[in-house]
Amino acid sequence: MYNAEPLKTNNHNSNEATVLRPVSVGIVGLGTVGSGTFKVLQRNAEDIARRAGRSIQIVHVGARRDHPDCDTTGVRVSRDIFEVARDPDVDILVELIGGTTTAYELTMMAIANGKHVVTANKALIALHGNEIFAAARKKGVNVAFEAAVAGGVPVIKAIREGLAANRILWLAGIINGTSNFILTEMWDKGRSFQDVLGEAQAKGYAEADPTFDVEGIDAAHKLTILASIAFGIPLQFDKVFVEGISRMESVDIKYAEQLGYRVKLLGITRQSDRGVELRVHPALIPAGHLMANVNGALNAVMVIADAVGPTFYSGWGAGSEPTASSVVADVIDVARVLTTDPTNRVPHLAFQADRLENLPILPIEEVETAFYLRILAKDSPGVLNKITAALSRADINIEAITQREIDEVNGQVPIIMVTRKIKEAQVRQAISEIEAVQDVVDRVICIRLEMLET
Ligand code: HSE
């Protein structure tokens, strides 16, 4: 349980100021983020101590192998990472191994042993956060996770503390660096999806399993966390609607550009009278919008709140030292509150644990957006009539319609439409009818369109 006593040096001379003993950190995982954390903690040790009010020392590293950039002389090194969670000298365990099995066991063991935990593990928090935070509350320890969302961008702190006065209305973010890097390269250089993915992996942006990035799962983990701290709802990853970018074709990025839009993978959550929207999917957004110009592996989150209005946070969402920046900031935060009463600390999910609300999550069919549709049809008389009739039966208003150049070889023509804001269920009904039209020759490409108006 909470015990401030061991954190001070025995200083019996009342004329001297009390010196707090160094805080001892155990780092588990010495990969991209672990090595960055090791280096930043060592390189900036003096400034960090000036900020934290005490020095912060790495006393133990748990890793399967050494890292060439990390000199662990004088630091205990264990190949069995659980040794770090058992080490009585460790105050704060920094979990940087990723995954949800071993990382979960390690985190729970550290908490059971009275250690504070700092993690960059979004999947762990999104899937097991409710349980982990409950265990941490019982033991009076902290679990900090700034690096889990948007890498080096301190968006958790901004929402949880900086915007604490507000009722948050909605937020939208580019929260997967790998997808943003891929979409940017496809748009800017016309490169192929596979080619760019390989480069993102080499740069250390991509997850161990890159399908997490390109299928929107990583963004959904982060959105789960953002929605909880924005609206005070429990973490519920299984309720997020997820669609990734793996089926994105460069032709749609090109047509979107011609219409004045860019394509981004967005995580969006919005609170309304009908429930909370929780969705990750590619979206067309106006090319002039700030968000449309967040390129490469950069991340951005915009938050719309009742008192402050719109705010915007952007920076590197992945990579070694950008992510380490958030990890180390959390270590400093935890070091500062070590001697405080746990009941007075900032709650893990921004709202007091017993004041979280189980607001309903809106099914995707009920969510309203505009849509970009690309329909490939034979250039035959009446085909456009049949398509617009299907749209009209689904009560869909068309904002814009254009027919692109005909393919002279097969006589097929792409028809591009932008709808007004409608329910997802309406567009699904229309698409199934359009795909049944005899002269429509392929599946209808459908991408949501968000104006991100504030
Ligand atoms: N794979 C993640 C990304 C790393 O690309 O954004 C940071 O969470």
Q: Tally the helices: what do you get?
A: 14
The 3D shape can be described as: elongated
CATH domain class name of the largest domain:
Alpha Beta
Quick one: biggest sheet? 11 strands, mixed
Strand content: 15-25%
The CATH architecture assignment of the largest domain turns out to be 3-Layer(aba) Sandwich
How would you state the average pLDDT, rounded? 94
Helix proportion of residues, in percent? 25-40%
Gap from first CA to last CA = 45 Å
Tell me which ligands are bound.
L-homoserine
What structural class should be given to the helix and strand makeup? alpha/beta
* CATH superfamily heading of the largest domain: NAD(P)-binding Rossmann-like Domain
Question: Compute the gyration radius: what is it?
Answer: 25 Å
Number of DSSP strand runs: 17
Please provide a written account of the structure:
Helix 4 runs parallel beside helix 5 (122-139) and helix 5 (122-139) packs parallel to helix 10. The two termini are 45 Å apart. The strands form 2 sheets. Strands 7, 8, 9, 10, 11, 12, 13, 14, 15, 16 and 17 form an 11-stranded mixed β-sheet that branches. The chain has helices at residues 32-43, 45-52, 82-86, 102-112, 122-139, 155-162, 177-189, 193-202, 211-214, 217-231, 250-259, 320-337, 383-393, 424-435; strands spanning 23-28, 56-62, 76-78, 92-95, 116-119, 143-144, 168-174, 241-242, 261-272, 275-286, 298-305, 309-316, 368-378, 398-403, 412-419, 422-423, 445-449. With 454 residues, the chain is an alpha/beta fold. Strand 4, helix 4 and strand 5 form a beta-alpha-beta unit. It has 3 domains: 23-152 and 321-353, 3-Layer(aba) Sandwich (Rossmann fold), CATH 3.40.50.720; 155-315, Dihydrodipicolinate Reductase, domain 2; 366-449, ACT domain (Alpha-Beta Plaits, 2-Layer Sandwich), CATH 3.30.70.260. Helices cover 34% and strands 24% of the residues. It is built from 14 helices and 17 strands.
